[in-house]
Amino acid sequence: MKFIIAQWSLRRAAITGVIALMIVVLAGFASLPLAVSSGVVRDRLERDISAWVGHTISLGDAPSLDFWPTPTIKLDKVEIRPSTFVDGDPILRADSIIANFNLFSAVLGAPSFSEFKLIRPTFNVELYPDATSNWSSASGDLAQGISAAVARDLATQSGAEIPPDAVIPASAALGAVTIEDGTVRWIRDPGAQADKLTAINGTMAWTAPTAIARANITAIFRGEQVTFTGSTATPLLLLGGRSAPVDVKVTSAPLNLEFAGTANLGANFFLSGAIKLASVSARRALEWSGADIKPGEALGALDLSAKIITEPNRAKLDDLIIMVDKNRGIGVLDMTWRENEPPLIVGTLAFNSLDIASFLQAFTPLPEPGKDIATTIDTRFLREIGLDLRLSAQSARFGPVMLANLAAAARVEQGRANFDVGDATAYGGNLIGRIALSEKGTDGGLKVQLSARKTNLGDFYDAIGLTGPLPRGNGSLDLELTSPYPTWATALTDLTGRIDLNVGAGTVPGLNLQKFRELAKTERFFDLDQLGEGTHFAFKSAHLQATIADGEANLTVAELVGAQQMISLSGVIPYSRSSLAIAGSLRAKPVTNGEKAAVAANPAHVPLRFFIGGSWPRPVISPVTP
């Protein structure tokens, strides 16, 4: 019994001792904040940031400490001034900074910090041609870490020994920083207006010099919300103007961009890797980006993926897959930025199918509405971009005209734009052509050239919706039109040029010559419907030539030669009003001397003169001689 009592006494004493020790420890923990000097924490924070960035920093004089749930210090009125010009404008201003610190290290008088939060900071950045900025510094832990990392990389690349003084300080890393409602203002040229990101919120984490640096932020750029995520495994090399692996993704309403590969942000900017770009409206994306290029107003969705490699003032896209307004092509593009000249894009693209009109509109702006349309055209694009593209397509269309096996070229250079069809098959024949646009000079405005050979002209008429008594058959067409105004600003009355049509054996639908002669004897006026449905005039050859000017086509040659009779026409077609003013004759075709007597004895061969009026495609015939 005494043993049991003694054992219990020992246990009670042990329990009491443990409880007492716990009370002492808890009391010690509770009293630790009392041992922390806010001034010491403030001064150490100021010193650490200044030592890291290599610039002078000033923090507010009224620190606020909080120990729950994590020890933090908050200071207002944060300013960082450039070390090269301390009296200059601050490179950073922030309403407040909040930093987490280690409680025990603070008690010992050497607080260490792990996480930071900047409240409403404004970063002012001036970018210089040598890839430095007003944030660059020759001193500081970051600068020392960059210099050491670059020296080690240079030695590794050359196979030399790493310099013994190339030591990267452990304090070279940024740590973890949260930005709340921040702003970044940057400027490239003195006197130019600054660009800026506003409403910046997100985090940047770089916990050790050799750790991966990551960023995940959202911001507002030119009225659009942007999300940026990025990472690099060697941030010191990237900051030091050396090549480093980079993974970047930018998401916004106008533009989505992804890049994964190697980047060099130094004076010799360099990219090598996979790139993806997508925009629901390339026009909107270019305007939003601030590029000094005015694209076609009709240019809509653009989607591309490629392997990109850059050189100074040049970028090459290999294994390119591009979608321009539902026109999907593959190929290669080279982009060159030239001094005192617009950027130049050269390449080859192959399409399964191509809508030529929508593709061309990608490079040409549309006009403002109004009667003075020709004076509202902005042709700046002819001076803002150089283009030399070789295009091919298994099938293509230009409006309603269908083409196959297209080989073409699109060029924009020195105030001129050309689209050349070097070869294409269309409606059983071959076609070549050119659309040229010039801003000024003797060849200013618009020029269209078209040559078709061995083409089924009837199918061509049907494709473009051209109806009426036209010669149908296989033949050739040569067309040349010019205008002093661009394509979109050209009215029918602005066109001048010529047209030449040659057709072999064929027919003119709705034309019955026997019925034509019968009606000419009895009617003062009649139309083609009165000649009977399903009838036609079979000819052996047809030739039409016309000059075009002031909204009218002047027929210089118009002959249809049949087996025994021929039709000749001359006059003016005011096509801008769809009206007709044509004199015609129906007579026997030219014959040899031995056939003249037989022709003269045939009453069907008596010459008949008539006038064609009314409007197209329903002309009205008025006989001049019965």
Structural class assignment? alpha+beta
How is the biggest beta sheet arranged? Answer: 30 strands, mixed
Number of strands: 30
Task: Report low-confidence residues grouped into runs of 5 or more.
Answer: 23-36, 366-377
- N- and C-termini, Cα separation: 155 Å
| Gross morphology | elongated
Q: Specify the helix fraction band.
A: 10-25%
Q: What does the radius of gyration come to?
A: 41 Å
How many DSSP H or I helices?
A: 11
Could you name the key traits of this structure?
single chain; 626 residues; alpha+beta; 30-stranded mixed β-sheet; 11 helices; elongated
Structure description:
This protein is α+β, with helices and mostly antiparallel strands and 626 residues long. Among the domains are: 2-33; 36-123; 491-623, no CATH class. The chain has a 30-stranded mixed beta sheet that branches. The longest helix is centred in the first third of the chain and has 34 residues, at 2-35.
